[in-house]
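$ fold --in a.seq
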Amino acid sequence: MFTGIIQATGKITQINEPKDGVENGLHLVVSPGSLEMSDVSIGDSIAVNGVCLTVTSLPNSLFTVDISPETLRCTCGLDKIGYSVNLEKAMRLSDRLGGHLVSGHVDGIGEVIKFEPSKENENNYLLSIRPPRHLLRYITSKGSITVNGVSLTSNLVENEVFSINLIPHTLSVTTFSMLKPGMFVNLETDMLARYVESLLNVPGNYNK
């Protein structure tokens, strides 16, 4: 589990075929930037642009992860050398939940429609994203949404697009300043909304 509060930005430095021979998968070498790695061990989870991945080795102040074909199919931004990524280590039960509960399991890929200075405050930026249509029912005004691993609040949902106001701090500690219209981002909707829908749609009565 994660909080969606980014701890550092890193960079994908190398992409290889997986050592275990998984067909169509990838083996990534990631530079962790300023992420504190002294407490990271092989087998630990790190969210890379919102995708929960398992550390497979720790060579020379770097870390490596293997990505399955299924993960590549439903995510974006993990297959480009030199690409900057948001990083967060898995949370401890004693940690503060500064964002919201994030699983690191991406629900879909959204398209950036608008990224520009806010008309109300030029220091802030307006980010508008078109999600896959099947995710719209989980996205609501003033609700939680995870974009490339960052816990955010959707301010407005209109015409199948949701908009977010980004403050200068968020821009400075994430990779969002690199965004442009037409780019794609990983989305994870609020897991509470998904569980509520699942419970309401359970067929029959399990108490019988």
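$ fold --in b.seq
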Amino acid sequence: MIQYVDMKQEHVSQVSALEQLCFSHPWSENSVAAELDNPLSLWIVALEGDAVVGYVGSQTVLGEADMMNLAVVPLYRRKGVGAALVSCLIQRLKAAEVYSLTLEVRASNDGAKSLYHKLGFEQIGRRPNYYSGPKEDALILRKEWQL
């Protein structure tokens, strides 16, 4: 059974390894660890036993949150882990009186775009050439809710 909990120090190395696996410009282990001490950050991990099978991270300023990264171990994709992570994050943000969540997604990432649209995110903009490795536009998606 997968549990969704706040990221702790013992999860950092696994989160960093998942960053390395999933992203062309991954966060370093030190950068991930620094989020534990950042009062603006909220990172949640999906655990099966002691194994991190996914995570989501955000930073909040003045009631608005930005999703930093979302990643799921390939074997666990398309099984609801990503949706559960984002939903858990939104519930935690609502409880903290945050009223919106914004993110960037690669224009070609149809799987992620589908997930976000199913969760109620809407495209509000585009950042040309935002990503490198390969170079690509980012779509800016946002979800707002009532407190």
